[in-house]
Amino acid sequence: MTVRTRRRPRTRIGWRAVGTWAAVAGVLFFTLFPAYFMVASSVSVQTGSGTDVLLPEALTLETFHYVLTEAGFLLYLRNSLVVALITVLGSCVLALLAATAVARFRFRMRTSILVMVLVVQMVPLEALVIPLFLQVRDLQMLNSLIGLSIVYIALSVPFAVWMLRGFVAAVPVEVEEAAYIDGASWGRMFWSVLFPLVAPGLVATGIFSFIVAWNEFILALTFLNEGDKYTVAVGLRQFFGQYTTDWGAMMAASTIITLPVMLFFLAVQRGLVSGLVQGAVKG
Amino acid sequence: MGDPVATRPAASTAGRRPSRRGASLRARRRLLPWTLLLPALLVIGILLLYPLLRVVLLSFQDYDLSNVVSGESDYIGFGNYVQLLTDPYLWRVALPNTVVFAVFAVGGTVVFGTLVALLLRTLGRIARTTVISCIMLAWAMPAVSGTYVWVWIFDVDRGIVRQLLQAAGLVGPEGINWFTERLSFYAIVTLNIIHHGFPFVAVTVLAGLLTVPRELYEAALLDGATAWQRFWHVTVPTIRPVFAVVTILSTIWDFKVFAQVYLMPGGSGANPEVLNFGVWSYIRSFSRQEYGLGSAIAVMLTLMLLVITIVYLRSLFRDEELR
Amino acid sequence: MARTRALSVTALSAVVALVASACGDGGEGRTLEVWIMEGTNPDATEYFEDIGEQFREETGVEVSVEFQPWADAHDQFVTAMAGDTMPDVAEVGTTWTPEFAAAGGLVDVTDRVGDTDHYVDGLVEAGQLDGRLYGVPWYAGVRSIVYRTDVFEELDLEEPEDWEELRDVAVTIAEEKEDMTAFPIAGGAMHQMTPFIWGNGGDIAVQEEGGTWTAGLDSAEAREGLSFYTDLALEDGTSTTGATTWLETDLQDNFIDGNVAMMISGSWTPAAILEGNEELEGNIGAFPVPGPDGGTSPSFLGGSHLSVMSGADDEDLAWTFIELLTSEENMQRWSEDTTYFPGTQEQLDPYTESDDPLVQPFAEQMSEAGTTVPVSENWGKIEGDQTLPTMLQAILDERSTVDEAAAAAAQDVEETLNEGS
């Protein structure tokens, strides 16, 4: 009897591990298959629209060379990086402040502001192109990477406010109170208590803003008229001709566009775990 | 069972807190939220709210390319809205395409993303980082490239899905064009959207999961709660705000999905049966240069989302969540 | 696959900057801004460096060229017009010219051009609005049938000379070559279909005396032509299921992959096809789209105009640039680089006598049977709405009969063309 009761949980755990890893494999397959498709068609010599590219007969890196040098992607990468980093920084700071305000204070018009912030995200971006273009022109921000970044901050802040609001609200108020009892000012409490606790939320928000700034193209295309200011997403458009599409180059460029997001994630992923650490300390 | 959660005081106590401090401090406190909000409101107001106002004004005008150039306006009252609302196309095609699709896409994305987040939490640190990095790929892939890849995968004549189905004997040699049927068309769009959208949900929910204090689980374990009970009674209530955000935002995005429909075969207008609000508005505005009508569609989409979001917040989440 | 050697804008601006610094004494620091569509000419960067050099020598003014991808060019023009950030000179697609002119974005160049007889008729026609000319014909292309000569030889087939023969050839290939699509009917490709409407005596729309348009898509001739074309897919099995949603690019991609035996394709494509698949070298040929009982069916004459944009700083200077681009020598080099046909009749003539089997049939098609879509400021809306592909797809997908689909499309076309008049 005792032997049996002891053995059962052990096999359960074994099965559980198998189940976990099977699930991981399934998730990875679903996620990576299209990505594999993208990479495979960028290095395959013969890139029609078919599935021949799945197992390319011959490989070439020529498309990458072409995309980076002749098609100007080195410059576009640099531009996009500048825009994305300014956007991430700007939207995280602005959103954290605003999120704290709506999650921790009660004041008049709080609900209206929250709803307004939500509503501005509901308008299809395509409908905003012309009014936004006129606005940006009046602000003298056309053809400027900073100008574009500010627009992207505006685009990602509403989202970030809503997201961070949830994270700030999830931090128990006692933690804050404890800081006040210790004699901390609001600013000090904000910086040394609230900030570390919402760090995982900030990371998730940061990744989101990064991707928004990195992949957006309609606005970038309309605001940037000079070739040396283009971002990667705009650069991607040059492979679409009037009657033809350069699939190999497009997929190579897409691969190049995708990688920095992963690198950015790897750079900030520690923040995602810091919440766990905090939780332990708090206990 | 809900006990561990109930001990968490609602955020409403925050407002009462500073009562024992000085009056000047209280005044400063009153200004503090506005100071915190100001920068974000400025940016949003100038670059989103004002253009949005212009879109609303446009929707009451007959505005075409020559108006764009000359800048003159030509107000026609509710003409655009009357034209739209009396168009059977809206009720028969655009509305169902938008709403039904969004229901499935949001449901699929949130459920799948949450499952992945739960899975990720059980993994060790290195495995977790590796898996998230891979998931990031799906998110980071530009929507344009991602859509083309899905179209290739489902290519009617030579796509891998077709080949598999044919090998399994489910499809005859003449094949089926799944891009021409609304249902199959949107099934592919849904797959594309879930693929592109679940990493956001997974990462956000995971971040939320990691902020749940350990003690809560330990307490629940001591009470003898099963895994499901722990998820439903500890995890869900604690990270409810995160779920709310994820669901609302996914709803907003999936209602106005554009590139993933526009770039599909027939999705840019050649097959009117498969258009949704976003694409419809775009085609009206840019392909037909009826900016007034296109803006009216956009405004209607916005209003629709607004109503849905409010109903959502009211019914799904406790009232104090928003106040 | 087609390597449209998209140019490096970076390299270009670097060169422009270099030229500017080296010759800073010329001009008064003025620059002429020019928009050129990207992807038409594989060597456009180099070409426009030379043009810029010539222009500077002539006028002392620098040229700054921005290359706009075709895919978004229309929207770019619209926002630029709205924001008053237009260039001085721009390449404008022929079907956009009346639309932009009506909106007030282009300058009337009728008097500057003067006599238009030496231009290809269809291009002049396409550039007019209310009898005034807004675009100078630059280059043009036309579609004919491109086919695999090796397949024709293997099956002992001749180039068809009327529709019956065309159908027989396609059916033979469909029966004999199982791994190939004989003659795909692409549902999203409008100008592959129009020759069958025009060839049978039908019209998309005709303008009456008073300026009102009457749609011709639902005429007996047009419907008969449409039936012939769509029946190739529905009855004769020369197409595939997937082709219902193909665009023109899909036709070309599949031809390059060796899956297609015959297709209607542009005069500018053979070079790209050969570049995409070298094994096809020597194995492709072309012939004009035959008429129902012999002769040639008209096919759409597409191309570009050069226009002076309203708000140009100096219209004379802009015009000088257009004259330079359309000079005989520059035109010839452009045509050679792009494999498009020049926009003047006298420059086109030599091509019709060319012995190149991939040039002559197209040139013949262009000078004998090149035609345009209804010239109207509202045509862009019909194109944007994809009215014709909608009709075609509905038939191919058997959601509508030819009669129903043609009637619906005719109604749409008529309503749209008569808007605002």
How does this structure look, described?
The complex is a heterotrimer of chains A (283), B (323) and C (421). Chain A is mainly alpha-helical. Chain A contains twelve helices and no strands. Chain B has one domain (88-321): MetI-like (MetI-like fold, Orthogonal Bundle), CATH 1.10.3720.10. Chain B has helices at residues 3-6, 23-58, 65-70, 79-85, 88-122, 125-140, 143-153, 160-167, 182-211, 214-222, 227-238, 240-255, 259-262, 277-287, 291-316. By secondary structure, chain C is of the alpha+beta class. In chain C, helix 2 links the parallel strand 1 (31-38) and strand 2 (62-69). Chain C starts with 8 loop residues before the first helix and ends with a helix. In chain C, 57% of the residues are buried.
Extended strand count of chain B: 0
Percent range for β-strand residues of chain C? 15-25%
Oligomer: heterotrimer
Head-to-tail CA distance between termini of chain B: 26 Å
Radius of gyration of chain B: 24 Å
- The low-confidence parts of chain C are 1-27
Q: In what range is the share of β-strand residues of chain B?
A: under 5%
Q: What best-fitting shape of chain B do the alpha-carbon axes yield?
A: flat
Keywords:
heterotrimer, A: 283 residues, mainly alpha, MetI-like fold, 2 domains, 12 helices, 77% helix, globular, disordered N terminus, disordered C terminus, C: 421 residues, alpha+beta, D-Maltodextrin-Binding Protein, domain 2, 9-stranded mixed β-sheet, two-stranded antiparallel sheet, 19 helices, 13 strands, 46% helix
Please outline what is shown here.
The complex is a heterotrimer of chains A (283), B (323) and C (421). Chain A is mainly alpha-helical. In chain A, 77% of the residues lie in helices and 0% in strands.
Compile the SSE list and pairings.
The complex is a heterotrimer of chains A (283), B (323) and C (421).
Chain A: H1 2-43, H2 62-68, H3 73-104, H4 110-119, H5 125-138, H6 145-170, H7 173-181, H8 186-197, H9 199-215, H10 218-223, H11 232-237, H12 247-282
Helix pairs in contact in A: 1-12, 2-12, 3-6, 3-9, 6-9, 7-8, 9-12
Chain B: H1 3-6, H2 23-58, H3 65-70, H4 79-85, H5 88-122, H6 125-140, H7 143-153, H8 160-167, H9 182-211, H10 214-222, H11 227-238, H12 240-255, H13 259-262, H14 277-287, H15 291-316
Chain C: H1 9-22, E1 31-38, H2 44-59, E2 62-69, H3 70-83, E3 89-93, H4 97-102, H5 110-113, H6 121-126, E4 128-129, E5 132-133, E6 136-148, H7 149-154, H8 163-176, H9 190-199, E7 205-207, E8 213-215, H10 220-234, H11 248-256, E9 262-266, H12 269-276, E10 284-287, E11 299-308, H13 315-325, H14 328-338, E12 341-342, H15 345-352, H16 360-369, E13 370-371, H17 379-385, H18 387-396, H19 402-417
Parallel strand pairs in C: 1-2, 1-3, 11-13
Antiparallel strand pairs in C: 3-11, 4-5, 6-9, 6-10, 6-11, 6-12, 7-8
